[in-house]
Amino acid sequence: MNDPRPLLGEPVSLDLLNTRWNHEGVREDLLSGTEGLGVWLAANGLDGRFDADAATLRHTLAAREALLAAVRRPGDPITSAALDAVLEHGRIRATLDARGPGERAEFTDPSWGPGWTAARDYLDLLRTAPDRIRACAHEACVLHFFDTSRNGTRRWCSMAACGNRAKASRHYARVKDTP
């Protein structure tokens, strides 16, 4: 199965949110089964580390809901607690080997690994630039992105898709109102 999503390449936390999207007015969900989970794991380089099974799907969906709530209501104690509950299932362990110091994620249950990884990534984005975590400005779009533009003014998940639709709508409204 190829990855059918319209927006790829976002940080893993936002990429997890983007497993749901609208296509011609219909809500699509890549994580409607374990096959889609396998696609998402592969897209994020996690397929060799975690299984695309029912338990991993269930925990990844729980993490997606907690992330979505945290992105929509940053700083809210209830949403923070939900994300923290996901983070309770793993930790970072400091390591030292022949290559030098490092870190390794450890999980209470490996099926929490992908969801925990996405939640941990969200914390990194919050540390880096919380104001650049954005939802697409198009009213019919549910996608999220991390704004990496130089001036930090990106509004659309994709200028070719949502940005163009918004420009076309404005143009149509102007033309329609012109006598």
Task: Label this structure with key terms.
179 residues, alpha+beta, two-stranded antiparallel sheet, 6 helices, globular
> What ranges have pLDDT less than 50 throughout 5 or more consecutive residues?
none
Oligomer: single chain
Q: Count up the helices.
A: 6
Q: What value does the Rg take, in angstroms?
A: 18 Å
Give the total of beta strands.
6
Quote the beta fraction.
15-25%
The proportion of residues forming helix, as a percent range, comes to 40-55%
Q: Please state the average pLDDT score.
A: 92
Helices and strands, in N-to-C order? HEEHHHEEHEEH
Main sheet: strand order: 1-2
Task: For the record, give the distance between the C-alpha atoms at the N and C termini, rounded to a whole number.
Answer: 50 Å
**Structural class determined from secondary elements:** alpha+beta
Shape: globular
Summarize the main sheet: 2 strands, antiparallel
Task: Describe the overall structure.
There is one protein chain. With about 180 residues, the chain is α+β, with helices and mostly antiparallel strands. It contains six helices and six strands. Strands 1-2 form a two-stranded antiparallel ribbon. Strand 3 (about 90-95) and strand 4 (about 100-105) form a beta hairpin. Helix 3 runs parallel beside helix 5. The protein starts with 11 loop residues before the first helix and ends with a helix. The mean pLDDT is about 90.
Task: Give the SSE layout.
Layout: H1 12-17, E1 20-23, E2 26-29, H2 34-43, H3 54-72, H4 77-87, E3 90-97, E4 100-107, H5 113-128, E5 133-135, E6 144-146, H6 159-177
Antiparallel strand pairs: 1-2, 3-4, 5-6
